[in-house]
Design a protein that fits this description.
3 copies of one chain form a homotrimer. Chain A is mostly beta strands. Chain A is built from 3 helices and 20 strands.
Chain lengths: ~350, ~350, ~350
């Protein structure tokens, strides 16, 4: 346990951010407005059953009620101060490991809260980038809590904001946070998904599926269809959109059908030169990456994990509805599908 | 659907390219010979049963008869104009989604051709790199058509040609296109591969195997042995060879046994600085990458997916036969295998 | 077979290095002390049964008795001269393929030693970086010998030593070599691991598991717990540690819980600019990468493959015990977990 005396941070400004559910992100400045601040967040852990697809029920565990948990945004050099609450009616001990933090298992060793407890952790955000946070209570609870939904992302912006491949400042008009999770929901002998009274009852079967490494579901934002149809993300032609994508456990490969990544920080770390013109990028299991794209055409875009089995059959598909004018120079239907007999 | 008026391209030169089956690539200039052109291609969709290994039959779907479909080459700023034909005797609707294109699901939304129809799509190649194209007719047909072989690659060269890590021009003496596909061929209760009367009959069983995410075969250019033995690629010592490698659905990791990647565009996008000295590179599922290598020694090289189970047991192995003089400075057999009793 | 005359290397200095078992690395200079040398190594192949987890026995095959085999270190431009010995009491033919070498399948074609034979291979280390070596005796023996443990790494240092992202020299205070392997140990009908009289007896069952692509174990340095508890790696706050990580067959994603990669050569090739601030990096199956980190906080760190199922349930976890003073500016437990009723 840490023994050093507390750092004196009494001269720093404090600001409290209200977290919002993904794919949305709380208000924030892209360029830091002044000196480093202490940024306060509060999250409550919620254990609850979630229907992740028709008839498929997950014994979910969440930060603040959503899968993934809310995205936090601070600037490099800021202090993150998180109050983490485990309500009395939960059944399990939880904690939080920030990949952005330094020491004590990312804070995991200092934040073990039993039901009916709260804790406060502060860490300095020293490295700019998008970083996963997740529950990691120890031993086999670690993969289980992560696979049950206890994951999220913090974005640490450079104080001057983002830079492009030439080092010039670049901003975004919108930001969306897509959290990809895979679930391992057990089936009975007839091949139907099993449903459990509580998380504890689900554990032995779930562990067996997990250890086989093949998920039953691969989803964005906690369930099949969380970001499609009426839940689609939106944008306009000409807008620059930042897509932050996390996967805390299993590799994935985001792709925007009909679009590209103009500037992609595949590892999510902003001190590195972003890659350009990406068709598909790669999120290492246990990380979050970021892709910036200016929409050039209207329409409904699918944003997918480009293992298309995982995208279409297992659930990893989102939509972006984009409004604006079509550009025939970029693409034109020269001949609509026509009967061959016509020629 | 696009409503904007057609762009006037009447002043541009048109050139028609005859596509050839992989691993070969149609004639093309590495440096663009002048102003942007409209480059015309034509592909016919072929549905057919294919023996992908001894006794293992795939209900294949192909662009122009080969798996992968032919590689197209244009320059940045050119217009690609594809005529896509779905012959009367096919059973299914198909389309084409170009990762190189912008809007309308990469053209997928504009090219749904039923059997007996054709369509023409034009798009501007605005980003230099190697990009996958594939069929994406909608819903679960998407992964199924891709896993049945409907994939290929377009290479969009910078107008000035390729550049090395220092920005100096670099060319290639040969180019080969290796398309990796994985298949999910169902087995019967005795563990033998099942054979089907047609694609429709194969679908329910195939879907079940696909959703388990473990392929029965991982192959280059459509079948085990498509690029080995008499079908091996060839080169000479001192020649610079560009290997373009696509995988439209599942990650892979190309490796040239006994060789290297001198310059590797792992994501395949030529505006980025290539990586040097690679032992193994990574193709994200749903992308195409490129690796340039000057052969320094003669012999038969194996070019593999370096998951060696996938390479050797599931099929992902190609050969390159290289002629020239051996360089003893680079490698020498100082002592041939000799009985220990001799010492 | 090579026909060229031997290169005259008679004027070069020879140095013999004694290999040591991982995670340790033999003594070496980070900056080359003079002209290129011939660096001599000797390895003996050991076939033996290994208990890789409680009650789980592998018919192991090893270079020099350890999984992975020992790490070799030379400088760019040096000649590696390996004596490879296959003792009389082994049952199988083996060889060695160096990803760092050029030609003859990385030396694999020149080093097939039967039991009771030895061979000597020399190659020039022309590219700086970390490179896998492994046994590759041909056909399905290749994945089997690799999956049985016959893998290792050579690190080819630039003559001037490592450089950071700005091209400035950077050294390390310690270096550890973590070799990740996955095993495919068959189970009987009751779900218990099977044990075999010898490797040959284990082959048919093992092949079946291998071809399903899902391992039973994913471990560091040959067995569950090889680098945890009393076997943990050690370091001090302020020390710069180089972690070399290999996986010869299957992708992995190293992560240091509570730490970072300050400078990461994900592909392991030192001519490329290292990435900064990494939370998780990616080792392509069939490659070795390197990550440099200066420890900033004391404590026990877990170093994991951040597929947490593979890390915790299948075995891919190591520990680093770090001594020094805690820095409260970087992280502080503002409120220890406390009963909610107290507020
Ligand atoms: Cu938890
Ligand atoms: Cu983690
Ligand atoms: Cu199709
Ligand atoms: Cu696609
Ligand atoms: Cu061997
Ligand atoms: Cu290899
Ligand atoms: Mg809240
Ligand atoms: Mg504790
Ligand atoms: Mg044709
Ligand atoms: Mg065969
Ligand atoms: Mg349509
Ligand atoms: Mg790069
Ligand atoms: Mg020895
Ligand atoms: Mg031989
Ligand atoms: Mg990079």
């Amino acid at each position: 346990a840490p023994l050093a005396a507390p750092t004196d941070l009494s001269s720093l400004t404090r600001i409290k951010r209200e977290l919002v559910a993904p794919p949305f992100v709380h208000d924030h400045e892209q360029v830091a407005p002044g000196a480093p601040r202490i940024v306060e967040f509060e999250m409550t852990i919620v254990e609850k059953e979630i229907e992740v697809d028709d008839g498929a029920y997950l014994q979910g565990m969440t930060f603040d009620g959503s899968i993934p948990g809310p995205m936090m945004v601070v600037h490099e050099g800021d202090y993150v101060e998180l109050t983490l609450i485990n309500p009395e009616d939960n059944l399990m001990q939880h904690n939080i490991d920030f990949h952005a933090a330094t020491g004590a298992l990312g804070g995991g060793a200092l934040t073990h809260v039993n039901p009916g407890e709260k804790t406060i952790l502060r860490f300095k955000a020293t490295r700019p980038g998008t970083f996963v946070y997740h529950c990691a209570p120890g031993g086999p609870m670690i993969p289980w809590h992560v696979a049950s939904g206890m994951v999220g992302t913090i974005m640490v912006l450079p104080r001057e904001g983002l830079k492009d491949h030439e080092g010039n400042p670049v901003g975004y008009d919108r930001v969306y946070y897509i959290g990809e999770n895979e679930f391992y929901i057990p089936k009975d002998e007839s091949g139907n998904y099993k449903r459990y009274a509580d998380a504890g009852e689900s554990y032995p079967d779930t562990l067996e599926v997990m250890n086989g490494l093949i998920p039953s579901h691969v989803v964005f934002n906690g369930k099949v269809g969380a970001l499609t149809g009426d839940n689609a993300m939106t944008a306009n032609v000409g807008e620059r959109v930042l897509f932050v994508h996390s996967q805390a456990n299993r590799d994935t490969r985001p792709h925007l059908i009909g679009g590209h990544g103009d500037l992609v920080w595949e590892h999510g770390k902003f001190n590195n030169v972003p890659d350009r013109d990406m068709e598909t990028w790669f999120i290492r299991g246990g990380s979050a990456g970021a892709a910036l794209y200016t929409f050039l055409q209207p329409g409904v875009y699918a944003y997918v994990n480009h293992n298309l089995i995982e995208a279409v059959n297992l659930g990893a598909t989102a939509h972006v509805k984009v409004e604006g004018d079509w550009n025939n120079d970029l693409m034109e239907q020269v001949l609509a599908p026509t009967d061959l007999a016509a020629f």
